[in-house]
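[recover] target loaded
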């Protein structure tokens, strides 16, 4: 894409600034009920109702997720939605036994992955200047950047799903190596974590576990 310059760039910047002010003016803070739903009182779920999740809803979750910030707009996360019986059988090979039923009963299981060659898309994603030399020939830097920002996008994904009325249950009890071999062989994608999506069966919940207080987890410098 052509990088805007001059008056075109100034117009675009002015519009971006006005848009942000308009959003903030319309909703300075979220109400308590909204915060409760996406984080404060949200729960990780392990059992699911037999209720489908539409492809349209998955598209909407992704569109919200893609708006979240990443370093230099790298956007390294890739989302593979496992919904078919065949796909779930393939994914089950990677799971610890206690997690298989959680995944099999969920309408959707998302594989949250990241592309180690994300930097090749920077001319499109970050057109202001060519940042590819920051990453080309630097595999450790690429991996760290992809993992960090892909994990951020995975968190945005979970919040977006909750905001649209779905329940989520992230899982890390699986073999990344098996997932990568089964789904990403011959590609530059690597798996990070799994996330079940759907409408929860709350009867499987137990009491919410404790969290650290501010004084336990936070300090000033």
């Amino acid at each position: 894409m052509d990088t805007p310059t001059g008056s075109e760039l100034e117009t675009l910047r002015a519009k971006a600034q006005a848009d942000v002010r308009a959003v903030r003016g319309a909703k300075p803070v979220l109400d308590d009920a909204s915060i409760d739903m996406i984080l404060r009182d949200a729960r990780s779920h392990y059992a699911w109702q037999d209720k489908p999740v539409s492809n349209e809803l998955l598209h909407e979750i992704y569109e919200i997720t893609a708006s979240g910030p990443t370093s230099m707009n790298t956007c390294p996360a890739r989302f593979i939605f496992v919904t078919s019986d065949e796909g779930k059988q393939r994914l089950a090979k990677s799971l610890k036994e206690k997690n298989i039923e959680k995944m099999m009963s969920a309408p959707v299981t998302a594989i949250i992955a990241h592309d180690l060659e994300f930097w090749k898309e920077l001319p499109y994603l970050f057109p202001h200047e060519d940042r590819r030399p920051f990453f080309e020939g630097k595999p450790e830097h690429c991996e760290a950047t992809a993992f960090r920002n892909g994990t951020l996008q995975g968190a945005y994904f979970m919040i977006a799903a909750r905001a649209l009325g779905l329940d989520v249950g992230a899982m890390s009890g699986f073999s990344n190596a098996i997932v990568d071999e089964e789904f990403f062989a011959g590609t530059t994608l690597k798996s990070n974590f799994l996330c079940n999506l759907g409408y929860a069966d709350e009867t499987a919940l137990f009491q919410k576990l404790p969290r650290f207080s501010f004084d336990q987890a936070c300090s000033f410098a």
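[recover] notes: Residues 43 and 206 are 10 Å apart (CA to CA).
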